[in-house]
Amino acid sequence: MRRIRLAADLLGIVALGVLCSCNLLSGAPSAVTPEPGEPPSGQTGAPPPTSRAEMPSGQVIGVDAFEYLGAFRLPGGDERPGTFAYGGNAMTFRPDGDPGGAADGFPGSLFITGHARLPYGELPNGDQVAEIDIPAPVQSDSIDALGQAEFLQEFEDVARGYFEGLDEITRVGMVYLDHPATGPRIHLTWGQHLQPDQPFGTHAWFDPTLDSPNTTGPWFLDAPLGYSLNGYMLEIPQAWAEAYTDGYPVGTGRFRDGGWSGMGPALHAYRPWIDDSGAPAADGSRLPVVTLLQYESSEVTETFEHALVGYQHPDEWEGAAWLTTPAGESAVLFAGTKSTGDKYWYGYVNPQGADRPCVDQELVGQYTVCRMADGTACPDSDLRECAGHTDYRGWWTTRFEAMFLLYDPADLAAVASGAKASWEPQPYARITIEDVLFSNPSGVETDMLGTGDQRRYRIGEASFDRQNGLLYVLELFADGAKPVVHVWRVG
Question: CA 384 to CA 358: how far, in whole Å?
Answer without folding.
Answer: 6
